[in-house]
Amino acid sequence: MTGKYILEVEGASQQYFDQSEKSFQVLNNINLQIREGEFVTIVGPTGCGKSTLLRMILGSERPSAGNVLMDQKPILKPDRNRGVVFQKYSLFDNLTVRQNVRIGLELENFSIFGNLLNTVFPGWKYEEYSTLVDEYLERVGLLQHGDKYPYQLSGGMRQRVAIAQAMIMKPKVLLMDEPFGALDAGTKDQMHAFMLEQWQQTGQTILFVTHDLEEAVYLGTRVIVLSQYYQGANGAKIVKDFNTPWPHPRDQSVKEEELFQDMIKTIRNQGLNSNYLLNQEEFDLSHADAIQLAS
Amino acid sequence: MLSVTKRSSWTDTLLSIFLFVLIIILYQYFAHQRHLLNPHDKLVPTFAQMLDAFTRSTFEPDRNGVYRLLDDTLASGQRVLISMVFVFGGVLMGAYMGLFPVMDKLFYKFFLFFDKIPALAILPILFIFFGLGEVSKVALIVIGVVPTIILDTYLRAKAFPQEQVIKAITMSASKSQIIFKIILPKIFPMALDSIRLNFKAIVLFLISGEALAATAGLGYRIFVVRRYMAMDIIISYVIWIGLLSYLIDAGICLWIKKQYRWYNK
Ligand SMILES: Nc1ncnc2c1ncn2[C@@H]1O[C@H](COP(=O)(O)OP(=O)(O)OP(=O)(O)O)[C@@H](O)[C@H]1O
Ligand SMILES: [Mg+2]
Question: Would you say residue B1 has pLDDT above 60?
Fold first, then answer.
C-alpha cells in the first residue's frame, strides 16, 4: 500500500495508577505508522491495552510519553476527523434509534435559525436527512426499529446503531473497539460487507479492535498483534505486524484458503501465546511500515 | 426492581384512601363532640364550618371587594413563578459548571458554601436591603432553593458519561451544542424531578416570607387570621395549599412520564 502516513504513533507509552497510587505501564514504547486508506485490525490478549491505544489515537487520552500524530500534527483532542465506536455502546439514551443516527448530521449542519424553525415545525429541517438516515438504518438492519429508544434494544442492536451513527459521518479515520462482539455469525457477515463497501467507497482509514481472529484476518489489510507478555515485560508492545495478501473486495471463500487458516494459527500460536513470546528475542514485524527497534 | 403485573382493583383504591377517610371521620367525630359541649368552639371547626369558610373566601368578595382566595393564590403564584425563572437559570448554571472546568472552579465552592447558609437567617438582611416588598420574598425563595438546584444539576452534568460527550465532539459538536443538544436534554427530566422534590422548600420559603411581610398571599392570610383564631380559615387554607402542591407535583410527574419515555428505564 502506498499513500502518505495519516497516523503516526511515535514511542508512545501509557501509565496508569492502581488503587495504591502506584503507577503501572500499560503501553510500552509503541511505534506505528498507518497509511491513508488502510484497514488495520488489532488483536491481543484481554487487558493488553488495545482500547487504551485507540483512546490515545482518538485524543481523549494523552500518552505519558511519546507522540501521536495525524497528518503530521499532534493529536491533542478528539475532533471531527476521527470517529469512534466504543467497546461499550454509548448511544444517547434520550434519543430514538433514528435520532441517534441523525444527531451527527444535525450537529454538523447546525444553524440557530434552522433549529428555531424546527422547534416551530417539527421534522421540517430534518426532512433532508431522512433518506440518508433511513439508508443507514437499512444497512444495519434496523429500519423497522427506528422509533425505539436504546433501552428497548438488545445489545447487538445497540451496537449496530452505534456503528451507523459513526459511519454516517464518514470520518477520515474510524476507530472501532470490538464493535461486533455481540453479533451472531450471519449478522456479522452482513455488517462486514457493509463496512468494507463504505470503506472502499470513501477511502477511510479504519482501526478495528477485535478478539475474533477470523474477523481480523478477513477484514484487515494489515493485522497488528499487541501483547503484554514478552521477555522483560513492562507494558504491551506490538509483537506482530503483517500484511494480508488478498486484495479487497474479498470473497467469503478466502476464509477457506489454507493461507488464511495458517495466518489465524500463527497469530494464535505465536502472537497470543505467552510461552512462545517469552522465548522470543525479536518480534515478527514483517509489515513494510513496521518500525523495528533494537531492544 | 421487581416488576409485577398491574393489578388495579377496588381493594387497592380502598387501601390508598383508607387513612384519609379514617382521619376525616375521627376528626369530624371529635369536632362534633366538642361542639356538643360548646357550640361556639373555634379551635376545632367542623367540616361544614371549614367548607363555609372556604366558600366565603372563594366566592364572596370581602370588604374591599376582592375575592380573597383567588387574590391570595395569585399573589403567591406570582412569587413562585418569578422564582421558577431563577430555578431554571440554576439548572443552566449547573450544567455549565459541570462541563466547563473554569466555571466549576469559580462557582462550585461558592455555591456549596451558600447552600449551607439557612436562607431564613439571611431574611433580616434581605428586608434591610430590599425592604418589605416583593423582591425580598422572591429573593428568599431563590436563595433558599436555587443553590440546591445548581449543585444537583452540576453533579448530574459531572456524572454525564464522558464517552457520549467525546462521541458528540467527534461529530463536530461545539461546546454550546454539547450543553444544549447533548447534556441538557438528558438531564432535564432529572432536574424536573429535583425541582419537584424541592417544591416543598419553595412553598416553605414562600410562606415564611409572606408571614413576615406581605399584604396578600396564602401564607400571609394564614398568619393574619391566626389573630382571630379563625381555625376554619386556617385549616381550609392549609388543605388548599396542600392540594395545590399535590396537583403541581402530580402534573410534573405526568409531564415527565409523557414527555420523557426513556427516563427511568
Ligand atoms: N483509566 C484507567 N485507570 C487505570 N487503569 C486503567 C485505565 N484504563 C485502563 N486501565 C488498565 O489498563 C489495562 C489495559 O486496558 P484496556 O482497556 O486498554 O485493555 P484492552 O486491551 O482493551 O482489553 P479488552 O480486550 O478486555 O477490552 C488494563 O490492565 C486496565 O485495567
Ligand atoms: Mg478494550
Answer: no
